[in-house]
Amino acid sequence: MTGPERREQLILVGRKLFADKGFEATTVEEIASKGNVSKPVVYEHFGGKEGLYAVIVDREIQALLGGINAALDEGEGARVLLEHATLALLDYIESDPDGFRILVRDSPPGQSTGSFASVLGDVASQVEHLLASAFKQRGLDPKSAPIHAQMLVGMVALTGQWWLEQRKFKKDQVAAHLVNLAWNGLSGLDRSPRLISRPRR
Fold first, then answer.
1. Which residues bind DNA (predicted)?
2. How far apart are CA 7 and CA 4, in angstroms?
3. Which of 87, 114, 144, 169 would disulfide-bridge 173, Cβ 3.0–4.6 Å?
4. Do residues 49 and 93 touch, judged by C-beta distance below 8 A?
């Protein structure tokens, strides 16, 4: 194999191991053994397990964000965009379950980017701008858009994690239920929400 071919082979090997076992449980020895190379070859290409993991996570993030960004560029109207973005995440989970499992696992210690939380933060910041515009049109406070964006993205992501393991519903059904809850919830928002009861302290 050429150097680039060997690198790609090790990425595929590492990707499968990280998806199945997680970062902590995967060793350089296993990566080398599954790739039919010596440990120094892994270090030569990636500097170690952390370097290989970072390359894999970066690719997964780009794939996920690319699909969601493309979905947000299509269609008009808040509901259509919500449907497209929801389906984009579910499409990624369906077509790339190993990649999604890698993203939702804990990141290596000290790694502040490349976690699933940071990916969701990126997506939420894009959704926030769409919501702020829609809120203005409906006479709602656009300053509340960030919290609603976090709630929407979190709802879709957590449901996606559940769906990955359960698969009790078809993808379109999951998307329809998510959009139904989100859209009908958004359409009935109070201008100044308040709790109707407070727990005793």
1. 27-46
2. 5
3. 169
4. no
Query: Does residue 70 lie in a domain region?
Result: yes
Amino acid at 122: D
**Residue 23 per-residue DSSP state:** T
Do the domain assignments include residue 68?
A: yes
Pick the closest to residue 71 from 61, 56, 86, 58 (CA basis).
86
Residue 132 counted as domain residue: yes
What is residue 119's predicted lDDT score, i.e. its pLDDT?
74
Q: Which CATH number fits the domain that encloses residue 131? A: 1.10.357.10
CA atoms within 13 A on the CB side of 82: 26
This prediction's pTM: 0.78
150: left (phi over 0), alpha (psi -120 to 50) or beta: alpha
Position 137 in a domain: yes
Q: How far apart are CA 16 and CA 119, in angstroms?
A: 21
Domain count, the chain: 1
Give me the pLDDT at residue 177, please.
93
- What pLDDT, in 10s, does the model give residues 68-81? 888 877 667 777 88
CB 181 within 8 A of CB 156: no
- Residue 2 main-chain phi, psi, to 5 deg: -75, 170
